[in-house]
Amino acid sequence: MSEAASFRNSAGLLPSLAPLLHAWLPRRRWFAGKGQPVTGFSLVSATELLPVRSTGPGLLHLLLGVHRPGLPADAPPDCYQLLLGVRGVLPSRLAPALIGRPASGPLAGRMVYEGLDDPRLAEVVLERLRTPGTLGPLRFDRFDGAPALPGGLAARPLGAEQSNTSLVYGDSYILKFFRRVQPGPNPDLELPLALARAGCSRVPVPVAWYESVTPAPYTLGVLQPYLRGSADGWRLALDSLAAGRPFTEEARALGRVTAEVHTALAAALPTVELRRAQTELLADAMNRRLNEAARAVPALLPYAPRLRAAFDALAGLGEEGLARRAQRVHGDLHLGQTLYAGTHPPGPPAASPENRAVSAAPGGRWSVIDFEGEPARPLDERRRPQPPVRDIAGMLRSFDYAARTHRPWNPVWAEDCRIAYCEGYAETSGTDPREEPELLRAYETDKAVYEVVYEARHRPDWLPVPLAAIDRLAAAVI
Predict the structure, then answer these.
(1) Half-sphere exposure of 93 (CA within 13 A, CB side)
(2) Rounded to an integer, what distance in angstroms lies between the CA atom of residue 473 and that of residue 430?
(3) DSSP H or E stretch at residue 88
(4) From CA 459, how far away is CA 241, in angstroms rounded?
């Protein structure tokens, strides 16, 4: 019997860890069940990446079912991926990573901690990715034709993410470690792979990845080139606002890049036609999400009738008898999902040490990252073909978010960016998203409703930003 199997069948492992995880897990920023009690855990799989019973540090990979109240009886628990470091004595530099010391079970008396915070253990993950193969229920794979991965790259965690964890190896590669996982292909591996195989250079190529094979297929981690020295679009937009300079050329370039990615995705993966029945289903889903949001955030209630009018107008498009294309899309496109790399003039230090405040000068290059979609939505929904306007609406909302962070509020900056972005998209795709205002308004409204719920739960101070958009969209006349 393998070590992985012996751990999975150990009656003492999970009961010994459960009290520690009950206290530690809800405090993680990537934990999706904030505000809801955890009623129990179940062990999906356990794999030793380094032996945990040795004198040196051990590394234990867990897929953990997290049970919460209120779920249907037949609904599976949320599944989370954990990497637990195990040591007899924890160095002081790793004290913030401590989870606890189990009082019983196979890890009794040893220190259990967040393994990704330990550079030595993080390097173990890269070593596994260097050699394709299986280890217990885990499978490690590489992209065909990718250069050999070097060893000995120092690892450091990035601190900016919310729903996942990322590690940078030697300023050469970045590993996204998915936290809450669902059975099936994760779009953040599936779509970049399809784009790479189609020759689209706007997305960093997945170099290596790993998945679970049993008891269910989960995408667990993706390694891609790290675009060292790049600046994300959100940072660039804020710098533009602070400097009082326009962002229209950057927005126009982003529109062209979005159209390039959409064109490549439509060529690489199947597309479908949306006719009357499918269009009405889209509108029904938007109305349903609005109803759920209004129950969760009562501030939406006064706007609900006028917001439903936007979704009813979308449903009415199906009566025209025209078919509209739906395809795989990014699913959560905004300025923070874009990176600019290239020659640019120096600027003052940005808030993050990862980048400097720069302006996107000619000669640089935009890339699109993070194709996971909105993590709160079910995986099958995120993998469903959608009208390309869904991504466009997300980026338009992002310009509004950026402008709202500036004091005083700069609506002209946001509107100029929206116009330039749509113009850039039309230049490359041949289709201007503003030519179907009902479709664009419905998707912008749906996105703003999503933002209201998100901000109410996670960043209440930001709630006025999407509520201002709700007020504007409710007042719009098509």
Answers:
(1) 5
(2) 26
(3) none
(4) 22
CATH number of 231-475: 3.90.1200.10
What's the pLDDT score for residue 148?
87
- CA-to-CA separations, 180 to 116, 165, 168, 310, in angstroms, rounded: 16, 11, 20, 33
41-55, 139-153, 437-451, range with greatest mean pLDDT: 437-451
Collapsing DSSP to helix, strand or coil, 109 comes out as coil
- Could you give the CA distance from residue 53 to residue 121 in angstroms, rounded to a whole number? 15
Angle between helices 411-429 and 233-243 (to 10 degrees): 130
What distance in Å separates the CA atoms of residue 79 and residue 32, rounded to the nearest whole number? 11
> Cβ neighbours of residue 467 under 8 Å, at least 6 residues apart?
299, 452
237 Cβ partners below 8 Å, 6+ apart?
247, 250, 335, 398, 399, 402, 417
Query: Which of 434, 210, 384 shows the shortest CA–CA distance to 281?
Result: 384
Q: Which of 352, 418, 446, 396 is nearest to 160 (CA)?
A: 352
Distance CA 8, CA 135 (A): 14
**For residue 111, what are the β-bridge partners?**
87
At 478 the pLDDT is: 53
Where in the chain is CATH 3.90.1200.10?
231-475
Q: Which has the closest alpha carbon to 355: 255, 175, 226, 192?
A: 226
3-state secondary structure at position 60: strand
Output the CA torsion 313→319→323→324 (10° steps).
Answer: 0
Dist. CA 129–CA 137, nearest whole Å: 15
Based on C-alpha coordinates, what's the Rg of the chain? Answer: 23
Question: For residues 18 and 161, what is the distance between their CA atoms, to the nearest angstrom?
Answer: 26
Residue with more model confidence, 343 or 86: 86
User: Hey, what are 378's tokens?
Assistant: 């079910």
Using the 8-state DSSP alphabet, how is residue 86 labeled? E
Residues 6+ apart with CB under 8 A from 372: 163, 164, 178, 186, 187, 188, 331, 332, 382
Tokens 């990615």, located at residue? 261
The more confident residue out of 6 and 391 is 391
Distance, first Cα to last Cα, the chain: 66
CA-to-CA distance for 396 and 215, rounded, in angstroms? 41
Q: What are the beta bridge partners of residue 327?
A: 386
Residue pair 359/239 in contact by the 8 Å Cβ criterion: yes
Provide the residue count of the chain. Answer: 478
User: Which tens digits make up the pLDDT trace of 393-441?
Assistant: 999 999 999 999 888 888 999 999 999 999 999 999 999 999 999 999 9
Amino acid (one-letter) located at 339: L
- pTM for the model: 0.89
